[in-house]
Write a structure and sequence with these properties.
8 strands; alpha/beta; two-stranded antiparallel sheet; globular; 6 helices; 31% helix
């Protein structure tokens, strides 16, 4: 919004609006399938693309996110898991504790746990969904193939947390760098 204040440390700057990011995420970035970040600026009612960044590693992507600048970004990976899944597995219900537990698992453990969950459910209801998946047209965040959004969550949320960004309603972080799912 106009008049958005971006600050880092004692210095306070004012810009007409924060930069806007759109992130096409890969849980296993490479030269063939990098993470692509589109950086734009709102001018009136339009957004003008300013730069495209390609990241071949999660570390490089995280380092870019951690740099002091003012932005609001849309990320194409989930920031959480379905409550029904988390409850049935007996995982922590509080987001940060649940994400810490999730990050402690390997991809093989995630796949095996989610496959067992699905195998025990009736045809047509194999995957658990978040309340927002349907209206958003999203794949279930526990899906490990085509697209592997469970792995994207597993790789992406740690990048955001390590970079210290704000995830509204989930993690306070730096309010000058706001990540939205």
């Amino acid at each position: 919004a106009d008049g958005h204040r971006c600050h880092h440390g004692p210095r306070l700057t004012t810009s007409p609006s924060p930069a806007l990011l759109g992130v096409d995420f890969s849980s296993s970035p490479s030269a063939r399938k990098p993470i692509v970040l589109a950086l734009g600026q709102r001018t009136g009612t339009q957004v003008q693309l300013a730069q495209l960044h390609r990241f071949h590693t999660l570390a490089d992507f995280t380092a870019w996110l951690a740099e002091p600048r003012c932005w609001v970004g849309g990320f194409d990976f989930p920031f959480g898991l379905p409550r029904a899944l988390v409850q049935q597995l007996g995982w922590p219900l509080q987001w940060s504790a649940c994400m810490a537990h999730y990050q402690s698992l390997t991809r093989a453990q995630i796949r095996d746990t989610f496959a067992a969950f699905c195998a025990a459910r009736p045809v047509g209801a194999k995957f658990a969904h978040r309340a927002t998946d349907g209206p958003a047209g999203s794949s279930p965040s526990m899906k490990w193939v085509n697209p592997p959004v469970a792995y994207m969550l597993h790789a992406g949320v740690p990048c955001l947390l390590q970079a210290g960004v704000c995830l509204p309603g989930l993690h306070p972080g730096d309010s000058a760098r706001v990540a939205l799912e």
